[in-house]
Structure formats: C-alpha cells, structure tokens
Amino acid sequence: MTILDGKKVSNDIKNEIKAEVDAMKANGEKVPHLAAVIVGDDGASLTYVNSKVKSCERVGFESTMIRLPHTTSELELLKKIKELNNNDDIDGFIIQLPLPPQIDTQKVLMAVDPSKDVDGFHPENFGRMALDMSTFIPATPFGILELLERYDVDTKGKHTVVIGRSHIVGRPMSILMSRKGWPGNSTVTLTHSSTKNIAQITTQADIIISALGVPDFVKAEMVRDDAVIIDVGITRVPDENAKRGYVLKGDVDFENVSKKASFITPVPGGVGPMTIAMLLKNTLLAREQRRV
Question: Is residue 96 flagged as an active site residue?
Fold first, then answer.
C-alpha cells in the first residue's frame, strides 16, 4: 500500500512555481497576483483564505485579501467583482464559498471574468474542461489528477467510481477521469445520494473517488483488494480528547480500508494541500496567458 502524500507533492509543486516566479523576477517581469474575496466571518473560510495568502508569499506571488461584512448585498459584491475584472494588476481571483444567503452564488460566479477565474467555476471554463480544451481546471480535481500522475497510478481502462456529484469535485472528476489522455481513459460511474446499492458498485471499482462529506462512509467491505482510494471528504468530528475539541475525518475508514488499497490518500494531508497548490498553478497560468 502506498500513501498518496499530498503534503509532499504540494510542497514540490510550490517549489517548482517559486523557481518560475524567481525567473520572472530576474527578467524584470510582473509576478502573478492572486486576490481572494471573503464575505462574512466563517472560521473555516478565514483559515482557508489565510493559508492561501501564506502560500502566495511562499512562492513569491503578490496577494490581496478583500474582506466584506456578512451584511454585504449581492449588488455590492457584484460591484467589487467588476472592479477586480477591470484591474489589470490582478491576474486571478477567487470568491470564497459559501456566501451569505442574501447572495445568489451562481450569479456571482457568472460575473467573474473567465480569464481570471482561477477556481475554474465559471460555466465557460467548465464547458471548456468538458470539451477537453485548455482551461482552468477546478483546483481540487486538478490536484487529484496531479497526485495520480506523480505517483504513476494507472487509470487507462480502469473502472472509476465517483461518490458525490457536486459541481466543485464530483461532477468535474467524472468528466476528467473519462477524458482521453492520462490521467483518464477510465470508465466512470457517478454515484450520489439517490444511487441504490452503492456498496455493490464500489466493490467493482478499480478507483474510488469519494467527495461526499460523510465521515467513514466508505468501509473496507465496500472496497475490492488493490483498489485506488481518493478521499476528498474532510469533516470536523467533535472529540473532547482532542486538543482543538474535534478531529478531522475523511469519507473513508482509513484504518481498515488502507489494509486493502494499493494507493490511498490520508485525511488530513492528502487531497487538501493539493487544492491550494493547484490554485497557485492556475494563477501562474493566468499570468502567463495575460503576458502573451
């Protein structure tokens, strides 16, 4: 069994990006600039955005964090997005989700300039991804592809079962794993909350990608021997014995499933660190496209 170490691979990617940015600086070129917009005071979102800012500093990017109050109206947020779209100094930006209930998330994501949409959520970028065209791939699916590639995991002709159909992970993963090329060329089954007999389907899978958000959902008896397990789920589970009062759990019963798997991602330290690394990679791509 091999651990797919997202922490190590993400550090490798950040070092590669830093080398490219150092070369840009040496040539007197503008370095990539990533902006993040956060509305409200959600603790998890703030932690995540702060880690993105620190990662930008590490690789030599410029970064801007824009914090707006929870009471921000949809109109005010759309006005801020328009400013970022028109700001030539900003290469890419993200709108941290979730947004407060008074704001239509879809309308906001549609307002982002596709050439600056480094999260890969705009319908134009999603469509280009579905058509196998050059575009920004959503950061978490992009990170999973990178892990599979760097660990030389064979995907051709394999049966991939994706658990979860979100637009951020499940649906794009089902498209990417079936595309021509590598990683890809697998036969994909997309399962979700209305799928009957999920356990029967997963026992036929060579690769399982779970993005459900239900702790320990994937049990050992649901997994065939030597399956590849990608655990995207991360849930805070209360634990009074833990220092923070909670522990982070993935969708997969790691202790028991790891005994059967050929490759598996841990939680934490698997897919999570890859998401930020690939967001940086998308921002570097955005800068390169704007430079042309």
Answer: yes
